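Data card: per-record layout.
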Amino acid sequence: MERVVITGTGVVSPLGCSVEAFWDGLLGGRSGVVPIGEEGYAELPTRIGARLAGYDERQYFDAKQARRMSRSSQMAVAATTQAVAQAGLTPQQFDYQEVAVIIASSIGGFAASDSFFKNFYQRRASNPLIIPISMNSAPSSNVSIRFGFQGPMMTVDAACASSAHAIGYCYNLIRTGLLEIAVTGGSDCPFAPGVVAAWCALRALSERNDEPATACRPFSADRDGLVLGEGAGILILESETSAKRRGATILAEVVGYAATSDGYHLTQPVPDGPARAMRRALKDAHIGPEQIDWINAHGTATDWNDKTETAAIKLLAGEGAKDIPVVSLKAGLGHAIAASAALQTVAAILSLRDQIVPPTSNYRVPDPECDLDYVIEGPRPKSIQRVLGNSFAFGGSNAALVIAGYAPETA
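The structure for this 411-residue chain is written out next.
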């Protein structure tokens, strides 16, 4: 089977709207969580969120184009612009009819339609752009149209695990020879009053409105919930054969992917499903838990997730679990739902490049049920060859990816 390599990355995030700004923010332990001051949020229990930092839509769109795109679509196009440039994709190098666009999005359509429905119920006003703007497939569609990519185009929606599944799906298509190049990852935005109010009703969000930068506290005993975030992470995946033919710089390699479901509860996870996903991803990569250099955790800072993920890692690695660094990036990024795994994957690629593990920020109080090595002291230099990424979603959908440094085979 073909080896599947990564040749381009792009990021728009609460820590910055370039790959390097994003990475500097993670290593610096910075937070993109800020107060939400727009109309409609003032009466909500949670009035904070991780919003884009340094994003200027005029860099990518004229006024008409921007009006016709949801926030999720805009972010997807912006991040893809960066990834395509880094990968050096030009029409002279390949057939655009063979480039797939498979981008995850889950909640951005709800957020985009919130104002439309408000206008309808209050004023009986409607708009012919409602459906094209708010459909969850719009980010993939807009990327395909913007760049003229004409291969398979679709959207993956498995809630918080969406972009891990999108990347994994492309990995399987490419390694089996069904595809050569894919634009994949995720883009999502939950910020509309009605959507945030629904999350508040779930009692899943932090209510530390007076201290937004430290509100999200993964694995810390004083955690009180997740913080919603927005963003996009886009990757260019291609076969090793294609990358070599083009003379592309190879950033990293996807070597394992697995998907499982809990089959248990819509909102309460159990350790077995996540543990099976991790175990199967490692089997796919032909490695054992002891060969993982750090785990890019789902780490939402909810009571259910953090204890369940810790227990799942122990099921995977046994006594060796305490020797594996486990990191959550959501303290600074918030939870970008369908984009989360894509942003985590970009961080894994950069970690492999720089041989350093980013920290888990805002860890304050030890939790006896969360007793692994969460890298709370700051960035940790380390020899890194492989990173295991976890993504677990409402509904019990679990995904695990193994990202490795690329080394050409030698005779």
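Known properties of this structure: The first strand starts at residue 4 and ends at 12. Residues 4-246 form a domain with the Peroxisomal Thiolase; Chain A, domain 1 fold (CATH 3.40.47.10).

See the next section for split statistics.
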